[in-house]
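call fold(seq) -> tokens
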Amino acid sequence: MALDTYKAIKMLKEAGFDEPQAEAVVTTVGNAFDDTVATKTDIAELRAEIQEVRADLHAEIQEVRADLHAEIQEVHAEIRELEQRMTIKMGGFLAATIGLITALNKLIG
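ret:
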């Protein structure tokens, strides 16, 4: 909404202000109005910036998700590898234990 300076000066003069006073008040209000009120263009630019930030955030979130998914897959692979190594070690311990039991049975029996 723009300030209609002509109407504002006319209203102030009708209220008892002289021409210089009315112009000074309207100029002061107009300057304050210009500095503090967003225009349609300001709002449109802000909306465009917000949309750009949203798009950037969406892209970054997708990138983080992809990175996280890849890291989770790596952890799963490491766990599977550890499981295999533990199975092999447990098999070795089991074989050694059976061998030890067999040797003890031969010695005792």
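The mean pLDDT is 91.
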